[in-house]
Amino acid sequence: MLELASAGKGAYQVERYAIAALPKDAIADGKINKPEAVEAAMSQAWRSLDSRTRAIAMALPVSAVISKKILVPSQANENETEAQITAEANQMASFPVDEVSLDYQILGPSAKSPTDNEALVVITRRDRVDERVAIAEAVGLTTVIMDVDNFAVLGAYPMMAAQVPGSGKKQTVAIVDMGANFTHINILHSNQPVFQRTHAFGGQILTQDIARRFDVSLEEAEDAKRKGQLPDRYKTEVLPAFLENAAQEVMRSLQMCYAATAYQSVDHILLCGGCALLPGLDAAIRNATQANVIVANPLAQMGLSGKVDAGRLGSDAPMLIVACGLAMRRFDRT
């Protein structure tokens, strides 16, 4: 959880933040399998946060949504636009229409069709939204925004652009968000999204490797990894293979981008997520991709309240990119 405050003139201040671990498989493929465990973790984070704010923004994983860009007539009124988008959403859904939760955003005039606007349509199963809202309510929180994690990452990108030489203008930048189970890759050119990919690869694979190599349970392996209490052999017998595999996964995603778009190289990679601070991961990705790799800190340009430990935040910041994008929604102009 992350709470931001306005610092004036478009600037932000980190008021407070809290992190709580989730048990293995508490959430899988966008579905909450262990609601009691998720509620307990959210309650723990909320108590640690010690905030008076009870209105929150949450995000669905991109794996739980279906999105599509469509064209809608620019002269259509709101009812006509919504009717067209609803019809399109019903065709997109691979599940019963009455289970669809729908949202959309008009992106602006279409570059290919001057009489149309481009709209982004996003659907998910209604129960994916309802289960998250219910858990938040059980903790005493009110969900006012339900976003998508991938969109939240893009929303936080302006806070990271300053880390990129030239602030990303006329350059191709990849945001690599490597979490426990998935790696999300967004590629931007001149700060505009041009490619996105999500694939099943993350720190859980390293946890499994540790458990197998040292004959411990997954829970023990995760705990030792988090506390830095692994045998010295870990650095030579386990970690290097994971770093190599991670770098190759990133390279494969870049190659898919090169095949699908006009862009044939990436200038900079912003590395974030729970794996970002693994020793040697940035160097392994740099060697595989020949790109400049930067460990992202979406909060680097923000002020800090007296409640925030700057040193601890510096270590945790790469994990907070989705939380940052969500917290910034508080300041949306509607």
Automatic annotation (TrEMBL):
This is Type IV pilus assembly protein PilM. It comes from the Bacteria. It comes from Sulfuritortus calidifontis. Coiled coil: none annotated. It holds the Pfam family PilM_2.
